[in-house]
Design brief:
- The protein has 394 residues and is of the alpha+beta class.
- It folds into 3 domains: 46 residues, Alpha-Beta Plaits; 200 residues, no CATH class; 114 residues, no CATH class.
- The protein contains 16 helices and 13 strands.
- The N and C termini lie far apart (53 Å).
Length: 394
């Protein structure tokens, strides 16, 4: 058995940070590779070869405690203000608020100065705004796993949201379940690197990325969908696949870290007590059962994976418009529930080009997709109600 963690193949590391949190000596830090993806680096002068980092690595053994069965709902919060600030149905905010009302703490990804995305801990409802919204890039978990352990040992409730691999990393670090820990994972396609996003935002703002005050990959000012915005003071710039090579390649699944294409978690069951995602392609009959939900404002699919998850969902149910559904229905437009993303033939060349030439490689490849850009623009001109009708004819 290895005495300390060594990543010899990129697909064998998801960058969850469990090893960093597990090292009592502080001998492990996350370092970027040429493409900006983060991997653990061990300072052998500080390492005492205890093997703890290897023990918590989620790629070294099958993750324990995954949930294989679930109850599924279509849901949205009734609070229009919360719904407007959320990417889909606002369910995370409802769960987080319930935990805070019990004197608990909530962990999620938030933008930090210098355009970095980091997991943080919030302990008041006012701070929840920082955790809302989809962020299409990898966050760093920092020392949050340690903080979760401290809070649980103090007898407090904790809600931790993240990608399936981050939730798996947290559980591996903790060594099991805790009745006061609510884990929420997302339906994840994969994550590009923060370096790629910074390059893209710098180009989008004409080299003025330092002026950016807010990044929204999903801005409901443009409706429920995959259209976002970047704010620089008083200026708001549209941010979507028609304005950004990064955004386009994210949606195409071309620039994720290698582990995302070898993701083991869909096959092993859901990691979180509750799984959240967008209920794309929801049918009118199901919307009607939700009692007044507006599909243009966003609807979530909610997978309740554990008894603990069931208890928390029942606690927030009065604040929701919801209706029972099925996993099969959700999977029709959320394939990553059951399988990892598959890289297109362009992936390898695009990644190698980025490592050699930087952002220019993204731009040159992006221009070749003229047909895709025109088709997407045409689809955006079709009203949402018409799109739903067309989907139901399929």
């Amino acid at each position: 058995m290895r005495k300390y963690i060594i990543v010899e193949q990129a697909e064998k590391c998801c960058g969850c940070g469990a090893c960093v949190n597990a090292c009592a000596r502080g001998a492990i830090t996350m370092k970027e590779d040429k493409a900006g993806f983060i991997f653990p680096a061990v300072d052998t002068a500080q390492c005492v070869e205890c093997g703890r980092c290897v023990e918590v690595c989620v790629f070294d053994k099958k993750q324990q405690g995954a949930h294989e069965s679930c109850t599924v709902y279509a849901a949205a919060v009734r609070d229009k203000a919360v719904l407007g600030e959320s990417s889909s149905g606002g369910i995370f905010t409802a769960l987080a608020t319930a935990v805070l009302e019990k004197g608990g703490a909530v962990f999620g990804a938030a933008w930090e100065p210098g355009l970095s995305l980091e997991h943080i801990c919030v302990e008041s409802p006012k701070q929840l705004q920082r955790l809302r919204g989809s962020k299409y890039v990898q966050s760093t978990t920092g020392s949050t796993f340690r903080r979760v352990k401290e809070l649980l040992q103090a007898g407090r409730y904790v809600c931790y949201s993240g990608t399936p691999c981050q939730i798996a990393g947290l559980k591996a670090y903790l060594g099991g379940e805790d009745e006061k820990l609510l884990t929420v994972d997302i339906i994840c396609h994969g994550v590009p690197s923060m370096k790629m996003l910074r390059d893209d935002l710098n180009a989008l703002t004409g080299g003025n990325s330092a002026a950016i005050r807010d990044v929204r990959f999903r801005d409901k000012a443009y409706g429920w969908g995959v259209k976002g915005s970047v704010s620089t003071g008083s200026t708001k710039i549209k941010y979507n696949a028609n304005t950004s090579p990064y955004y386009f390649y994210f949606l195409e699944g071309e620039v994720y870290r290698e582990s995302c294409y070898h993701c083991r978690f869909p096959a092993e069951g859901r990691q979180g007590d509750i799984t959240l995602g967008d209920y794309w392609g929801i049918r009118s009959a199901l919307i009607d059962k939700m009692g007044g939900a507006n599909p243009d404002l966003g609807i979530s699919c909610v997978l309740v994976n554990s008894e603990k998850g069931k208890q928390w969902f029942e606690a927030i149910a009065p604040a929701l418009a919801y209706a029972p559904s099925t996993r099969e229905s959700v999977e029709k437009r959320n394939g990553q529930l059951s399988k990892a993303s598959v890289p297109l033939p362009e992936h390898k060349a695009l990644l190698e080009g980025y490592e050699q030439r930087g952002y220019a490689a993204f731009c040159s490849g992006y221009k070749k997709h003229t047909k895709d850009h025109l088709l997407r623009k045409a689809k955006e001109m079709v009203p949402s109600k018409v799109k739903r009708k067309l989907n139901e004819l399929r």
